[in-house]
Amino acid sequence: MADDDKDMLVFLADEPDPAAEQEATAAAVWRVLLVDDEPDVHTATKVALRNLDIEGRRLEFQHAYSDAEARKVLQQEAPFAVAVIDVVMESDTAGLDLVRYIREELADAQVRLILRTGQPGYAPEISTIQNYDINDYRTKSELTQSRLFTSLTMAVRSYSQLCQLEAGRVGLEQILDATRELSRPSGLQQFATGLLTQLCALLRIDCDGLLCAALHPATRQPYILAAAGQYSNWTGKLLEELPEGGIRSRLEQSLQAREHVLNGDIGLFFEGANGQALAAYVNIGRQLSELEQQLLEVFCNNMSTAFENLQLYLDIEALAFRDTLVDLPNRNALLQLLDQHSGEQHTLALVDLDNFADINNILDESFGDAVLQAVARQLCSAFSEQCMVSRLASNLFGVYGPDVEVNPDQIQSLFAQPFQVGDGQTLRLSATTGLARAEGRCGKDLLKNAGAALKQAKRLVRGKHLYFKLEQSRAARDRINMLQMLRTALSEQHLQLYYQPFICLRNRQVTGAECLLRWRTPDGQFISPEDFIPIAEQSGLMVAIGEWVLRTALRWRISLQDRVADDFRVAVNISQVQFAEPSFVERLLSILRETGVPRHQLELELTESVAIEDFDRLKSKLQQIQAAGIDIAMDDFGTGYSSLSVLQRLDLNRLKIDRSFISGEKNHDSFDMAKTIIAMAEHLELQTIAEGIETEEQCAELLASGCEEGQGYLFARPMPEADFIVWLDAWPGA
Ligand code: C2E
Ligand code: MG
Ligand code: MG
Q: In whole angstroms, what is the distance from residue 134 CA to residue 112 CA?
């Protein structure tokens, strides 16, 4: 904190104005209420006290001649500094009744009371004197002029002290309230307005002729942050735009000297964090009392602290709600806006820059930053103030606003033009956009919907746009639920393998079996691998499932050791996702070692989708597998896109003709296709196996075409382990 001197109230050596001082003194008097039923006493008292001057103020008298009349005067004309009360008036205790009335019913604890009586016998009890806080009690004969003088002087002094204490107490209470009020996080403007209001309340002046100036955060120029009353329309103006002298110079003085200026009009200084400061101007038009000065000092100290805290809060808030790189609202700010205003006919668009990672990697990161800044600028200038442009993640921008503005045309036309990046370079960019209509949804949901549309757009129509559709979200939800269940199924061993034999078409001997995954949900329902495998693949869970399948299949092969020939092969389907793992071959060999299955007893079924992988990497993986002695079959052959030349260059052992060519539609063209595949395989010196053989006719035709092996319902359906053994024992060719 700055040294203490800074916070001291400083008087500038302005000459006091004698005329104003005189006026103030004339206005200030001590008001005294005389209550006595004898008019002579009133006159005598007034004469006796006529020259009395206490602390520079004269006395002003008000008269009442009975308890009842005094009550009226008190009700209408309070406050009084002193009441001099006769005890015996309309009744013997009228004076004491009045005292009780003042203290108890009016609850006026401040007015000083002097009791007097003609007869000593009517003296009040000592307890009454104490309870009702009576300053003096005298018989009239005792009250000589000088006694009365002294008694009144003491009473007035005591009243004045009480008033000071009370003002101090009320002032401090106000300061505490003000501090509490202004310590709540608010905007800077709100803080300044509140500060002015509280300042008026403390000084008991009208909220008029008040200003608060601050250094502008960007330019460091002082400007009017808040103003009240006649100066309200000055808000926002630079200080130097104000008329010279007067208010302007008072505010300038406070800001430059970094201290309070207190005489006549006052300028108060509030020190904030990081050199930021506030100055307040108040036209008070009088000298401040000592108490007021002390209270102001406390007020200013408290407000400086509150101001500093507010700045810290604003800094933190700025970080939480703003993206500093492109100086736009961030995701939090967008969510906040969407929650407050999710209107009809409004749309949220998420704009994702295509290939931004390449820009960042190939060029450098600072160029990437410049690109983002250029896009931010263009987006801001393309949309009106009714729209909010924000940055949500690295290369993802959000635009929210009325449908007429936030739509694909508007966004695409923006990207049709090259962007100005940095100094003079231009760059063409493309973006993929996901849009969702607000339709009264909460911010999170709207953002999620637009995000789902974007994800879909990136997959299907890169560089273009898609709107969110409700069905899409249902499908996504179902996928997520299924994935969750599948995870549990894997960990709780609800997955199972079924086995379907391979048959040599010539001699009907069993040559091996394919392992097929089965998922039985707790309610006994089977879910087809064709439904759940794609979901497992998308989530990456397929790698773990695939390892489980491999290990289970190999253990099963070990268990068959004494029942089948040595070359009985177990065929395992390998997902492209699993195959693409860099450690795939290593894991495969390690599982083989772990289970002790000779390598020639394993065959991997791959689909043409493995060809997505970089060709050299794919080739080297296949070579490693074959070098290890493991067979590779190309599954579902004929349904994919792999060209013959690719096939020629890859090392495979077998083609597996897809079942759609065998038992699909009973159409001869497709069976001809199967024959072509068989011929081609022969040419490439690959073995063939046909899936989906359901009839003897199909079997005979395949055999005639040169296909060696087959698999299908004609021989057996996929079966659980125990059923397979039963089937095997019963199979004649075994
Ligand atoms: P796939 O590898 O082509 O498996 C052959 C499919 O044909 C199996 O379907 C099998 O039940 C079915 N099939 C066998 N004979 C006949 C027949 O005579 N007529 C007909 N109409 N169909 C027959 P399934 O078991 O439903 O498996 C479907 C696909 O799921 C498999 O096709 C494979 O791509 C995948 N899959 C199954 N298990 C696994 C696994 O463990 N890992 C991986 N990655 N994929 C698997
Ligand atoms: Mg297969
Ligand atoms: Mg197949």
A: 7
Q: Which helix (H) or strand (E) holds 519?
A: strand 510-520
Q: How far apart are CA 389 and CA 379, in angstroms?
A: 7
Rounded to whole angstroms, the Cα distance separating 253 from 663 reads: 97
Report which protein residue has its CA nearest ligand 1's atom 3.
636
For a mutational test of ligand 1's pocket, the pick from 497, 515, 516, i.e. the residue with the most ligand atoms closer than 8 A to its C-beta, is: 516
List the end-to-end C-alpha distance of the chain, in Å, as a whole number. 95
| pLDDT at residue 148 in the model | 85
**Average pLDDT over the chain, rounded to whole?**
85
For the CA of 694, the closest atom of ligand 1 is 18
576-594 tens-digit pLDDT: 999 999 999 999 999 999 9
What confidence tier does 185 reach under pLDDT thresholds 50, 70, 90? low
When pLDDT is averaged across residues 399-410 and rounded to a whole number, the result is 94
pLDDT one-digit tens code per residue, 714-724? 999 999 999 99
**The token pair that represents 391 in the structure block:** 């940055």
Find out whether the beta carbon of 659 lies less than 6 Å from any atom of ligand 1.
yes
What's the 12 CA to ligand 1 centre distance in angstroms?
Answer: 96
Q: What percent of the chain has pLDDT over 70?
A: 92
Instruction: Name the residue of 573, 581, 635 to mutate for ligand 1: max ligand atoms within 8 A of Cβ.
Output: 573
Beta strand 654-657 with 631-637: parallel, antiparallel or unpaired? parallel
Cα 668 to middle of ligand 3, angstroms: 20
Residue 675 and residue 657: Cα distance in Å, rounded? Answer: 10
Q: Which amino acid is it at 488?
A: T
Helix (H, G, I), strand (E, B) or coil at 185: coil
> What confidence score (pLDDT) does residue 17 get?
41
- C-alpha to C-alpha distance for 140 and 272, rounded to whole angstroms: 63
Q: Judge if the beta carbon of residue 536 lies within 6 A of ligand 1.
A: no
Which of 164, 159, 162 is closest to 33 using CA atoms? Answer: 159
Nearest protein Cα to ligand 1, atom 42: 573
Ligand 1 atom closest to residue 529's alpha carbon, by position in its atom list: 30
Give per-residue pLDDT as tens, 498-541. Answer: 999 999 999 999 999 999 999 998 888 899 999 899 889 888 89
Confidence (pLDDT) at 584: 95
All domains of the chain, ordered by start, with CATH?
2-167 (3.40.50.2300), 183-320 (3.30.450.40), 326-468 (3.30.70.270), 482-725 (3.20.20.450)
Whether the predicted pLDDT of 432 surpasses 90: yes
- Whole-number Å distance between alpha carbons of 327 and 321: 10
Asked if residue 673 lies in contact with residue 667, where contact means CB atoms within 8 angstroms, the answer is no
* Rounded Cα gap, residues 552 and 585, in angstroms: 17
